Amino acid sequence: MAIEKVREYLKAYQMADKILEFSVSSATVELAAEALCCEPKRIAKTLSFQVGEEAILIVTAGDARIDNHKYKELFQTKAKMLAFEEVEEKIGHEVGGVCPFGINEGVKVYLDVSLQRFTTVYPACGSSNSAIELNMEELKRLTGENFVSWIDVCKDWE
Predict the structure, then answer these.
(1) Collapsing DSSP states into helix, strand and coil, what is residue 158?
(2) Do 81 and 60 contact (CB within 8 A), yes or no?
(3) How far is residue 73's CA from residue 81's CA, in Å, rounded to a whole number?
(4) What pTM was computed for the model?
(5) In terms of DSSP bridges, do strands 20-21 and 130-131 run parallel, antiparallel, or are they unpaired?
(6) Strands of the chain, DSSP E
(7) What CA dihedral angle connects 33, 134, 46 and 66, to 10 degrees?
(8) How does residue 1 score in pLDDT terms, banded at 50, 70 and 90?
(9) Which site among 15, 84, 130, 153 is 20 to 30 Å from 2 CA-CA?
């Protein structure tokens, strides 16, 4: 189970005990916000894309949407999300629990600046009923060696 993989990964950072598990689904921004009793924009959604031969993750605020122009300018290709059936194999987590922790080796992680307006945000933890509250420094640190950079590829959040 992917949440166990994330729990094991977060143990190295002494953060495994901060994982929150719910009796209800948190598989979408709206469901996660409801489970956490917070605003949907504070949910850190992790999106999976194909860039050339590589799968990448972009973590954005819950109210942000990918701006195709900004994305193409940065990655030199059109934004192409992974197909549902590709996500678990290429990333290491199933749709609904995708997060930037405990992912497959070589998957690059980018954090969008839409997250930086919050003191803390809530990314998933590998399952469709989990999350963890993190500040920006913790989020960056916990992405580990997969972290590439902060980027600006979203719209509709400002």
Answers:
(1) coil
(2) no
(3) 16
(4) 0.97
(5) antiparallel
(6) 20-21, 43-51, 54-61, 65-66, 108-112, 120-123, 130-131, 134-135, 147-151, 154-155
(7) 80
(8) low
(9) 153
| Tokens representing residue 9 in the block | 């990964």
Residue 38 has which token pair? 């917070």
For the stretch 114-151, pLDDT in tens is: 999 999 999 999 999 999 999 999 999 999 999 999 99
CB 58 within 8 A of CB 50: no
- Residue 2's pLDDT band, with cuts at 50, 70 and 90, is confident
Q: Is the pLDDT at 158 greater than 70, yes or no? A: yes
Whole-number Å distance between alpha carbons of 46 and 111: 9
DSSP code string of 83-110? PHHHHHHHHSS-TTS--SSSPPTT-EEE
Q: Show the tokens assigned to 16.
A: 């495994």
